[in-house]
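Try this one yourself first.
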């Protein structure tokens, strides 16, 4: 009867011989599957097995640590994903909540042109008088395609270089404003885009417009995004250029061109456009009629911004800066005053007073003949002077076309 072994037999590892070109002596065999472990024929079987077990345990520990690392990494990434999703959801809810309480972006065009000027001309096209809203100013609407390309480029380079690329707001400027609002307690940083300036001046109330609060800045940003989403960029720019204030009661680029240079916005050259584009930031400070040196320095800044934006070359900017500018403010003298008052009364009775001061305004060509009017004024003045010794101090005359009944001249009352 064979004796049964009292201990379980350990499975033996298969031993392999080293390659024929190996430098390992033939009496030292490698244990397959266990790195850096050699078979020593002089060592006991238990010693070799112990060494192999130690190496195998170290390998298991390394594998377990790697699994723990990747498991932790995945949990961290999942946590960040949940946090980001939650913040995004809260942000969207907050955005639409704020948007629901704001004026409709569709009101932009209706509100932008709440007042406009009306002009009264003689029969040859000479301006007799411009009727302006006493609570507003001078404004004449001008389509974007008719505005000088220099005026458009100067405005974009100065106010919002990336106007055609942004979504209505500048994210970097918003973050900067948010930082200062949280640290200073109020909004002290600017950087508003053209769209933000437009909604602030048109859609926000005067009281809210004057506030420097984070709430106002957020409402303005939401409105700007909605306006940029619903209106073409060219339309936003057109409304802006016809609405912005340039000083001296001039609202819009056309009124500004007429006020300072006596010409249409369609005819502005580079030097003139650069000077006007610098005024909206501080119209009183850079008033070229009162402070020509300040206006010239501001013009230089605008020209530099145009060079940086690639609209003009340095040589063109230098030539524009060196160009002499002659300011031609419109005359304020009222021509044919009694006739103008008569026409104004007729217009108010027929169209209402609001029609004279609200968009689109009126352009009225009358029957007055400037040559006959001048003769009539001169003759009335001569007759009054001749009769002064008889206590005559005033006179009147009216000249009519007998065939049509048109008033050709009207002097006095």
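Now uncover the answer:
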């Amino acid at each position: 009867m064979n004796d049964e072994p009292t201990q379980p037999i350990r499975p033996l590892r298969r031993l392999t011989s080293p390659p024929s070109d190996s430098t390992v002596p033939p009496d030292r065999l490698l244990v397959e599957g266990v790195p850096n472990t050699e078979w020593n024929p002089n060592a006991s079987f238990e010693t070799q097995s112990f060494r192999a077990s130690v190496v195998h345990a170290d390998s298991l520990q390394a594998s377990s640590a790697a699994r723990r690392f990747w498991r932790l990494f995945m949990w961290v990434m999942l946590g960040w994903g949940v946090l980001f999703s939650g913040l995004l959801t809260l942000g969207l809810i907050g955005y639409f909540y704020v948007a629901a309480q704001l004026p409709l972006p569709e009101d932009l065009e209706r509100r932008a042109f709440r007042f406009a000027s009306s002009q009264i001309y003689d029969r040859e096209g000479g301006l007799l008088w411009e009727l302006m809203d006493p609570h507003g100013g001078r404004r004449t609407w001008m389509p974007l395609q008719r505005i000088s390309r220099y005026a458009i480029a100067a405005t974009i380079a100065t106010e919002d270089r990336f106007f055609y690329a942004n979504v209505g707001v500048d994210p970097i400027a918003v973050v900067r404003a948010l930082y200062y609002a949280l640290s200073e307690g109020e909004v002290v940083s600017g950087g508003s885009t053209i769209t933000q300036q437009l909604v602030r001046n048109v859609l926000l109330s005067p009281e809210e417009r004057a506030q420097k609060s984070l709430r106002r800045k957020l409402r303005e940003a939401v409105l700007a995004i909605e306006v940029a989403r619903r209106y073409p960029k060219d339309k936003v720019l057109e409304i802006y250029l016809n609405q912005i204030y340039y000083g001296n009661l001039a609202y819009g680029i056309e009124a500004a061109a007429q006020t300072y240079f006596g010409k249409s916005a369609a005819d502005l050259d580079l030097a003139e456009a650069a000077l006007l584009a610098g005024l909206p930031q501080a119209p009183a400070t850079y008033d070229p009629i009162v402070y020509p040196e300040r206006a010239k320095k501001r013009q230089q800044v605008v020209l530099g911004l145009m060079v940086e934006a690639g609209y003009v070359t340095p040589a063109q900017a230098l030539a524009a800066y060196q160009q002499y500018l002659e300011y031609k403010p419109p005359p304020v003298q009222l021509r044919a005053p009694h006739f103008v008052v008569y026409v104004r009364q007729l217009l108010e009775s027929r169209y209402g007073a609001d029609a004279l001061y609200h968009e689109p305004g009126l352009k009225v060509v009358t029957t007055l003949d400037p040559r006959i009017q001048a003769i009539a004024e001169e003759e009335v003045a001569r007759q009054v002077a001749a009769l002064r010794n008889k206590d005559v101090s005033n006179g009147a005359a009216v000249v009519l076309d007998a065939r049509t009944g048109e008033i050709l001249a009207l002097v006095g009352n």
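Discussion: DSSP finds 15 helices and ten strands in the chain. The chain has three domains: 34-92, 106-322, 367-413.
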